[in-house]
Amino acid sequence: MRTDAKNTNEMRITRRTKNSFYAFPRRYPRTFASRGFTVAELLVAMGIFTIVIGLVVGIFVGGFRAQRSLVALMAANDNASLTLEQMMRELRTGTQFCIWDVSTSSCANPASVSGSALQFKNADDTTVTYQLNFSASTIERVVNGRTLAITGNAVRVSHLQFYLLHDGSVGSQWPPRITITLSVSSTAVNLQDIVTQLQTTVSGRNI
User: Fold this and answer.
1) What is the pTM of this model?
2) Are 133 and 112 in contact (CB under 8 A)?
3) Where are the domains of the chain?
4) Residues 87-128: pLDDT tens digits?
5) Nearest to 117, CA basis, from 136, 100, 104
6) Residues 177, 203: contact at Cβ < 8 Å?
7) Do residues 183 and 159 lie in contact, with contact meaning Cβ atoms separated by under 8 Å?
8) CA-to-CA distance for 177 and 49, rounded, in angstroms?
9) Quick one: which of 56, 81, 124, 185 is 20 to 30 A from 73 by CA?
10) What are the residues whose beta carbons fall under 8 Å from the beta carbon of 113, sequence distance 6 or more?
11) Are 161 and 180 in contact (CB under 8 A)?
């Protein structure tokens, strides 16, 4: 009886020892889906991500710059168109036109039919001069000795020419006809090479 009890106790101890052994978690072999990334894989992924982000940012910045350039060009062209419209409204009712010589402050030789400055009398019988300021690249309106730039700061005027046919003087048989040519660009550094050519012709209404 004692021997059987001893054997029974030894079997219990053995079972407990086996149970305590299997109480620890078993280690299974790691599969491809469960293992992590290596350093090389992380570096490759980061490199691809950086390249993609750089391309996206470059496209975004390029589009933003193109939009700004387009807005600047439109602003310059709109301002030049408004300037031409302002001159045309006043020239239509003007008389006694002459190509103005800025250097001598007098009308140029009658044989001269073109120049960068034009003087006339408007509907209020006030002497008005439109001229190009070469140093400032602006169009100026001179009235009673007062000079006012009529083009905006965003516009660069590189060329202004008046072509006069008939001066519209008192007793003249033909109405005056003035052709204006204009070259403008934006003052932005990267847009100064993009020049817009404008031309219009005005016929006087005073016959």
Assistant:
1) 0.67
2) no
3) 60-203
4) 999 999 888 888 988 888 888 766 568 899 999 999 899 999
5) 100
6) yes
7) yes
8) 66
9) 56
10) 99, 163, 164, 165
11) yes
